[in-house]
């Protein structure tokens, strides 16, 4: 029996693991692991050391998997913007098809350098012990045990680095902003009240003592995160954003780098 695209995608990931290729989870599965209440779409997104992308391409070719052309499908993950990223279709629907429900499932490999994540930041899945303040209610992930992950601090820093490479008005940058805000909200605050019927106070209503306390607890968490010496500004920005002293969309974008404002 001919293997399905998804089966070949899983075989490729397993081959890479068997070969000792470092795979770092990202996007949907990683956000779910952090505690973001997302639906698992079936797509898989990994960062790979830049020098191993050729091996990935060759291993995929042995399984008759060819990378999607850049124009075949609209980008829905910022990692796809990297010039050397590889995208494979693991959905039985064609890339151009609009039939069926849900997004097209993809297997994406992007260069680790695109994120700025360092190898010494990686950890095994069983070393990831972070518990978000919003109780998790997502199903268990089926990520292979050899895949690596990163801390919430490394995740936020990587998101900010990637956003700085994308135009400010881009839909992909908007998605990354939502991811960053969601991580802060669901990981550092208890959002379990969502969906309940409750009165929402107006913007002119002062914060309650409990709300002020929750904010300062979140600030203390961020202050404890390790940031690189040249990225302390990210930590300062996030603290001000949590205290509503800055807006997340003020974070650097591609245009800022071009004008020298980063």
Structure in words:
- 36% of the residues lie in helices and 8% in strands.
- It has one domain (1-192, 207-262).
- It has helices spanning 5-18, 28-34, 53-62, 152-163, 171-188, 209-224, 232-242, 254-259, and strands at 24-26, 44-48, 86-89, 106-111, 123-124, 148-149.
- The strands form two sheets. It has a four-stranded mixed sheet with strand order 1-2-4-3.
- The model has no long low-confidence stretch (mean pLDDT 86).
- By secondary structure, it is of the alpha+beta class.
- The protein is built from eight helices and six strands, in the order αβαβαββββααααα.
Keywords for this entry:
8% strand, 4-stranded mixed beta sheet, globular, alpha+beta, two-stranded antiparallel ribbon, 262 residues
- Spans with pLDDT under 50 lasting ≥5 residues? none
Quick check: average pLDDT? 86
Helix and strand element order: HEHEHEEEEHHHHH
Instruction: Report the strand count.
Output: 6
Helical residue percent band? 25-40%
- Tell me the number of helical segments per DSSP (H or I, 4 or more residues long): 8
Strand content: 5-15%
Assign the structural class, choosing from mainly alpha, mainly beta, alpha/beta, alpha+beta, or little secondary structure: alpha+beta
List the helices and strands and how they pair.
Layout: H1 5-18, E1 24-26, H2 28-34, E2 44-48, H3 53-62, E3 86-89, E4 106-111, E5 123-124, E6 148-149, H4 152-163, H5 171-188, H6 209-224, H7 232-242, H8 254-259
Parallel strand pairs: 2-4
Antiparallel strand pairs: 1-2, 3-4, 5-6
């Amino acid at each position: 029996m001919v293997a399905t695209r998804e089966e070949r995608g899983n075989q490729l990931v397993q081959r890479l693991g068997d070969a000792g290729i470092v795979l770092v989870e990202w996007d949907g599965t990683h956000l779910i692991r952090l505690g973001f209440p997302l639906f698992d779409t079936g797509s898989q997104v990994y960062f790979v050391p830049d020098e191993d992308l050729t091996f990935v391409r060759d291993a995929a070719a042995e399984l008759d998997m060819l990378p999607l052309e850049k124009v075949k499908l609209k980008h829905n993950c910022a990692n796809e913007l990297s010039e050397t990223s590889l995208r494979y279709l693991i959905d039985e629907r064609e890339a151009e098809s609009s039939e069926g429900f849900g997004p097209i499932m993809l297997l994406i490999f992007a260069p680790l350098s695109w994120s700025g994540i360092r190898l010494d930041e990686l950890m095994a899945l069983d070393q990831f012990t972070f518990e978000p303040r919003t109780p998790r209610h997502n199903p268990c992930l089926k990520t292979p045990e050899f895949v690596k992950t990163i801390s919430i601090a490394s995740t936020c820093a990587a998101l900010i680095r990637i956003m700085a490479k994308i135009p400010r008005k881009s839909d992909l940058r908007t998605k990354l902003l939502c991811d960053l805000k969601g991580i802060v909200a669901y990981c550092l605050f208890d959002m379990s009240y969502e969906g309940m019927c409750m009165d929402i106070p107006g913007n002119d209503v002062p914060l309650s003592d409990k709300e002020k306390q929750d904010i300062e607890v979140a600030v203390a968490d961020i202050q404890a995160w390790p940031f690189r010496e040249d990225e302390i500004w990210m930590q300062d920005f996030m603290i001000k954003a949590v205290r509503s002293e800055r807006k997340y969309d003020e974070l650097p974008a591609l245009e800022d780098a071009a004008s020298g404002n980063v």
